[in-house]
Amino acid sequence: MGRATLTSLALAATVAGATLLLGIGLAALVSCREFPGRRALEGLLILPLAFPGYVLGFVWLGLLEFTGPIQTLLRDFWGDGAPSFSARKFGVLAFVLTLSLYPYVYLPARAALLGRSSRLLEAARSLGTPERALFFRVSWPLILPSALAGLQLVVLETLSDYGTVALFNQDTWTTAIVKSWHGLFSLATAAQLAWVLLLATLGVSALLRWISVGRSLATRDSGQDAPERKPFLGWARWVAFGFGVLPFLFGFAIPVAQLLIWASNAAEPSLSSGGMHAAWNSFRIGGLATGATLGLSILLASSARFGASDDRLRGAIRFFIVIATLGYAIPGAVMAVATFSSIYALGAGVGTTLATSPLLLLFALATRFLRVGYEPLNAAWSRIPRSLDDASNSLGHSRISTVARIHVPLLAKSAAAAAILLFVDLVKEMPIQLMTRPSGWDSLSVRIFQFTSEGQWAEAALPALLLVAVSCLPLGLVWRSHGH
Amino acid sequence: MATEPLSLHALQVAGLCVDLGQPPSRIVRDWNFTLEAGRLGALLGASGSGKTTALRAIAGFLPIQAGQIRLGDTLLSSANTLLPPQARRIGFVFQDFALFPHLTATENVAFGLQGLSRRERASRVAECLRQVGLTSFADRPPSQLSGGQQQRLALARALAPRPQMLLLDEPFSGLDPVLRRELATEIRDLLRAEGVTALLVTHSVEEAFDFADRIGIVSEGQLLQWSSPRELYARPAHLEVARLVGRGEFVPARMEQEAGGGLLIDTAWGRTRLPAGEIPPALEARLWIRSSGLRIDPGSSFRAKILSVQDLGGRCECRLEGTDGSHWRGELDIESLVSAAGDASTSWIGKLIPIRLHPEPPVLLFPNGRTWPA
Q1: Which of B85, B100, B157 is the closest to A393 by Cβ?
Q2: Is residue A197 within 8 Å of residue A335, measured between CB atoms?
Q3: Angle between helical axes of A311-324 and A359-382 (0-180°, round to 10)
Q4: Distance between CA atoms of B279 and B260, rounded to whole angstroms?
């Protein structure tokens, strides 16, 4: 337990620091400077988001293991004197998690940098700020709040990660929960551990929120110009390009290439009947859970709008929404344990019936991912000024007619976007599916995890490629929601 | 009232009280006014004074806690009646225009036209767009229109269903000053030509006076005065009305009964008279001297000290101090100033100049905050 705590905290701290440096560094590079390939890199740098941690993790394990291409190359070069090492190390794990999570910092930091008004920089210059100090005195305070919001996601994801840390044989809170769950099969121990992890994630969220509260973002009016990018000259251009392109290579291009190689070399076609069945299950549970979660999200987001006439009711609704969307801060492993505990509290009969049907899985997924659907819908509602409702009423339309003719058309796009985001998150999700699935039920993410925990990289490659391809779907949406 | 055809669609507001918020606070307190049919009214006041709240109550967006709102014969709102906005046939032009972003200009205007045949609707939409000069922008969404065009479109949309009355909530505040003035007069002329009863809410004095022939002055939840622009200027019913409508200062004054029955008003700035028969409530008061209310008069025995002068070309704006220490700011004729204080403008400051009150019906302010005559 002490060891798990140490590893969890050390991992969260390491990944947080590394993503902050990498995310802000890359954001500053592509939005403040000009160099060859910059425009392409701006977009390419978000692609690692398409890799779930446990997929990026097994690819790098495969690349770095004794029989993998890198150590083989070293041996070919040096012969028997070549260094051999194990890839299942804390450092490699932190490297992999950093690669898959840095876009959470990169995206908001870049949006904040692009949102700066050049007037601000001009004002700072006219007040005598030297060129070198401009970034830290003007830009840095502007991007920090949004970068911290992104960092909150990074820490949450790191603390709640199960698949990647399990692959690297590291003992953390999540692996401890799953072990006591599967190995000892003790719901009580798992529940106790789950409490610790839950409190830690909620504490981290609250802390980061507290740090960033009250730091409002100064943004540029549409009429003003963004600051111009200063070009790099000479060899510095290529150094800049090299720094920018590495995260894309390590986090996306090389892993995709390796997956393609494995998939084409696989001894047995891995989308055999079992594989096809798993893909179908992923699609089905993803679709069902998307529908259920989206429905709940629409109800939740709309209740905030229509219950607004009464202040007390509004307060109650806001409180309820906070509770209902808290699930996103709850690690999948904790959510699975919690769902089981509450089901068994209903009594053995009901519990067993529910536990053997996919309903339990559906329930756990919807509870965890409600916020993913709620946020875009809530944002869409807040972009519909109440004066539109009033205008429609004053032009003779009833409330229902207003919903049909104004609200539905204006929300439709965001609902579609929320559905895509949800579907991808749900299909990628692994620990809840692993722990609450009915026996014999299989999905893409569960199958990848099972193959890779036995080192069968080639068998896992095709399902992994499928997941990555699906995950690329919403990246356009993510890209647009951050300043495009 | 209902028997007179002219007041058929007059807006009558009586004893209107509106509460907002939690805990409820009274934003609108006991307002009474009538806007006759075909007239253009304006409610003028600072933000937070309650004018927009009153407008939203008239539109039916808010319930009222006491009083009545009537349009012609119809009771729209009372403490226990609330005719929903969609049943009021009152057009509303919003501060943010509230144009439907997913609909084109044509579709926005057609939105309120229900129960018409396709042809009737199309011809009414075309007519409304022509009236506001947007015919060639009919197929554009609001996002591709300029601020002024959006403003016109919002007006066309509100007028299309031929409402019984039009309400405009700070409709020009999002526009630049030149365009604002131009549109205010343009829209005023259009509404006059159409004979529409309209009520505008604004915080800009010029806008209210450019637009309306009935103006209500609003402050901190109270309707201080509702009357014609001329009346507001000549007989402000309240200190704040005087301050808002015209520039000037209140200076200490004493009243003395004269032998002929009249009343002499004596100040350090000059004397003026009230005719016999008008008796103010007390003998200590303050006299309202407008920014145009002083003249330089070499024959006068009253003196004031120049504190500052700003040459405006032809006229000049001065700050003066009276012999009793009170201050006045306003405009003086530059020729008279030169003859009274000398040619060198650098030596004007501190000079004493002879002054005289310009004869005008006086406005007095008493210590209880009341003005007279009210």
Answers
A1: B85
A2: no
A3: 130
A4: 13
CB A146 within 8 A of CB A107: no
Tokens of A316: 């109650």
Q: Can you tell me whether residue B31 is helix, strand or coil?
A: strand
Do B94 and A405 make contact, defined as CB atoms within 8 angstroms? no
Nearest CA in chain A to B110: A395
User: Given an 8 Å threshold on Cβ–Cβ distance, is B94 in contact with A390?
Assistant: yes
Task: Evaluate whether A444 touches A18 at the Cβ level (below 8 Å).
Answer: no
Model confidence pLDDT, tens digit, residues B244-293: 887 888 888 888 888 777 788 889 998 888 876 676 767 778 888 888 88
Residue type, A233: L
Q: Say what the ipTM of the complex is.
A: 0.77
Tell which of B55, B108, B111 to mutate to test the A interface (max A CBs under 10 Å). B111
C-beta of residue B279 within 8 angstroms of C-beta of residue B351: no
Q: Which residues of B255-292 are buried (b: 16+ CB within 10 A; e: fewer)?
A: beeeeeeebebebbbbebebeeeeebeeeebbbbbbbe
* pLDDT tens readout for residues B174-204: 788 888 888 888 889 989 988 889 999 999 9
Does residue B236 have a cis bond before it (omega within 30 degrees)?
A: no
Between CA A359 and CA A352, with CA A294 as vertex, the angle to 5 degrees is 10
Tell me whether strands B165-169 and B248-257 are parallel, antiparallel or unpaired.
unpaired
Nearest C-alpha in B relative to A389: B98
